[in-house]
Here is the input.
Amino acid sequence: MMTNARQTPCEGITTERPHLALLIQDGQRRQIVPLSRRYYSIGYDSHSDIQLASRGVFCHHASLVWLGDHYFIQISGSENPSDSRLSINGEPLVAGHLRPGDSIAFGQGVRARLVAVRSAPRSTPPAPGQSAALGQAREDQKGQTSCGLIEFFPDLILRFDSQGDILEVQASVDPDLGRLICTAGQSVSECFEASFVVNLFSYGQRATETRSLQTFEAAITLNRQPLFCEVRLVPAGPGEHIAIIRNITERKRLEQALLADAIRDSLTGLLNRSGFMAKAAQAIALKKSSAAYNFAMLFVDLDNFKVVNDSLGHRVGDQLLVEIARKFKTGLRPCDTVARLGGDEFAILLHDIPSVATALELAHQIQQSLAVPLRLDDREVLSSASIGIAYSDGDYDSVEAILHHADVAMYRAKAAGRSQYALFESTLNP
Here is the structure.
C-alpha cells in the first residue's frame, strides 16, 4: 500500500515557470517583486512574503500560488466578492487566475500588474550537507525509499517541499482517499484543487513560522462528489512539510444531519423557530447594508385549531398541520422562507420584494387556499387563519421587533372576525 520515490523517481521532474514579476504601487511606494516561488502570502503584516504598506487591506490579504502554467490568487478572510477588496481587471473576485498584463487592485490605493521579465531569479542552491534536489526522496539503508510511516494507515500522508513538489507518499487504506492518485515526483497542484493547494501552502507557512501543528478542513471533489477532509500540517526539516489528510465525510454528514434536525420541525419538515430567526436576522442585515432591499414577514395563526384537536383528535390535528404547511409552501419562491414557530403558529419571510403589495397578495392567496376543505381521515375539515404582516420600511434592529409587529397585526386581523389579514401600522403598537 506504500507509494514511494523508488517506485516513482523524483529526479528531473520540474515545472518551469515563465519569468514573471509583480509591479506594485502601494501609496507613495513602488516595488518590483520577482516571482520565483510557487507560493506567496500577501498582506500588511510582517510575516507576509509580499508586504503592502496600506492598512486598507487585510493583515493576510491574499495567497498567490503557481498552478501548472499560471498563478492563482485567492483572497483571505472573505467568501463574498462584493466585500473582498480584491479585483482583477476591474472585476471583484474572491479567487482567480492571473495572466501577464492583468491589473490587480488590493483596495485603498494598492494596485499591481503581473508582467513578464527578461530573466528569472535563480533559485537558491541546496546548502552543503542538505539532501539532494528537493524533489528527490530520501533512501533508507537498504536503498529503498520510505517515509518511515505505518502501513495500512487510514490517512493519506504527504511530505512536500516549499515548491510544492511531493517527496514521499504514504497511501491511505481508506477506500475513498485511496481513489486520490498522488505519487512522489508530482506537484501538489497536480493532485488537488486550487483552493486546497492554497491552504496547503498557507497553513504550511504558518506551521513553519510557529513551529506548531496547523489544521484546516476542506473538500476535495472526486468523481463529482465532495470528499470532506481534515488536514494536519507539521514542519519536517528545512523547507519541508508533512500533511496528514483524513477522510471526515461521514462526520460532516452527521454534523449536517444534526444541524438540520436542530433547525427543522419534525412534524411538518419546515424550519422551526430557531431556523426562522436566523433567516430573518440575515434579512435585517441585508436591509441595513442596502436600502433598495426590502422584505416582509407574515405571522400566521390558525383559527379554531383547538376545536379540531378536541373534536377529531390530535392525529387529525397533526395531519391538518402537515397539509397546511404544504399549502404555505405552494407559490413561494425558492428564496422565500416558511416556518412553523410552534403549535398552530407559522411565519413566512418574503425576501427582496418590490413593495408591500407582494406580501398583501400572498396573504390573499393563502386565505383563498385555506378556504378549500381538506379530506382528512375520511372527514372533511375546514381551516382558516389570521395573518399579520410587517414590512421592512420600519427601522428594525432585531428579529424580535419585526416579529412582534407582525404578531400585533395578526391580533388585529383576528379581532376583525378571523380569516382576515392586516398590515402593521405604527398606530397599532401600544
User: Anything to note?
Assistant: The chain is about 25% helix and 30% strand. The helical segments are 188-191, 194-210, 249-263, 273-289, 305-312, 314-329, 356-370, 399-415.
